[in-house]
Amino acid sequence: MDEALFHELPSEEDALDAYSRIVTTVAERLAPSVANLRVRRSRRGREAVGGGSAVVLREDGFLLTCAHVVGSDDARGRAAFTDGAEPAFEVVGRDPLTDLALIRVDAAGLVPAEMGEASRLRVGQLVVAIGNPHGLGGTVTAGVVSALGRSLPARSGRAQRSIPDVIQTDAALNPGNSGGALADSRGRVVGVNTALAGVGLGLAVPINAATRLIVSELMTTGRVRRAFVGIAGGDRPLPPAVRMRVGRASGVEVIGVDPDGPAAAAGVRPEDLIVSVDGRPVERMDDLLRLMVGDAVGVPVTLGIVRAGRPIEIALVPAELAA
Questions:
Q1: Rounded distance, CA 151 to CA 286, Å?
Q2: pTM (2 decimals)?
Q3: Which residues are catalytic?
Q4: Secondary structure of residue 219 in the 3-state scheme
Q5: Most confident of 46-50, 105-109, 200-204, 264-268
Q6: What is the Cα–Cα distance from 131 to 108, expressed in whole angstroms?
């Protein structure tokens, strides 16, 4: 190593002190904004008790958590804060297909967390997780962003989707962390901790433009409306000749077609490669899912498809996804 560069690097003690200052500052800033949830819900005629975490969105009582934490639309319980307050909460809305839920407490003067932007994260970046594992309130762990762009399967009734752009972190997460905050080094919430991926790995739903739209829908209507075309698909690299023709490296291969869905009615076939929707590029299944928002229901779209090496266009009308 160059000697001059070596002298510019901080000592181990200085680096550790800087790390500690970041983690303690984030913890102090966010602790009042993360609640410990004690959840009661009915299950097959019996009352079930669970727990998790939630993040304050607005000072007038709205909190963001995970759909699997509250479990049902009629769940009730209490949200415990670091100042000792334990107001009751009710569920405003749930979206199991992103594992997000919005609850509201009857309390004033809450401390809202600052929302960040997960799309600005980089692999290796420091993140801090705050939650209530095993009911132990205000627990803080730290680590780094291990990977970005992960997908997490989600189900609601018969509907199945993948949650896109999930954040993978090695900050220690345990049962009860779900619904808690994953924050960057400035204390901005960039994700909602949602699942354990294995020893030393955790996953978080990102805070981004799509998440904000979901929260807005939950706040106004209590549900999220989605469109669907009725295919099962997977990401696939395009053959070189097709790649040059359409100007992108990958698309979505149609693996299966719902016989009662819009795609089947329009003539989409297994082994078709979807490369665009209304001229907007589709390189991954997540790209297609992002375009299937509520506003797309009943609105004709044109799929750009490569079939047997030839580009064609197929018009179809997305239907509403029944959860």
A1: 8
A2: 0.81
A3: 68, 99, 178
A4: helix
A5: 264-268
A6: 21
* Euclidean distance between CA atoms 228 and 255, whole angstroms: 15
pLDDT digits (tens, 9 = 90+) for 165-174: 899 998 888 7
- Residue 209 contacts residue 156 (beta carbons within 8 Å): no
Q: For 26-84, where are the E strands, in sequence order?
A: 34-43, 46-56, 62-65, 76-80
Q: What secondary structure does DSSP assign to 77-119, as a single string?
A: EEEE-TTS---EEEEEEEETTTTEEEEEES-SS--PPPB--GG
Q: Which among 256, 55, 26 is positioned nearest to 160, based on CA atoms?
A: 256
Counting every residue written for the chain, the total comes to 323
Q: Which residues of 30-69 are buried (b: 16+ CB within 10 A; e: fewer)?
A: bbbbbbbbbbebeeeeeeeebbbbbbbbeeebbbbbbbbb
CB 170 within 8 A of CB 202: yes
Residue 178 sits at the vertex; the CA angle it makes with 169 and 68, to the nearest 5 degrees, is: 125
**pLDDT grade for 54, boundaries at 50, 70 and 90:** very high
Q: Give the span between the Cα atoms of 212 and 220, in whole angstroms.
A: 12
Q: H-type helices in 31-175, by residue range?
A: 67-70
**Cβ neighbour number for residue 14 with a 10 Å cutoff:** 10
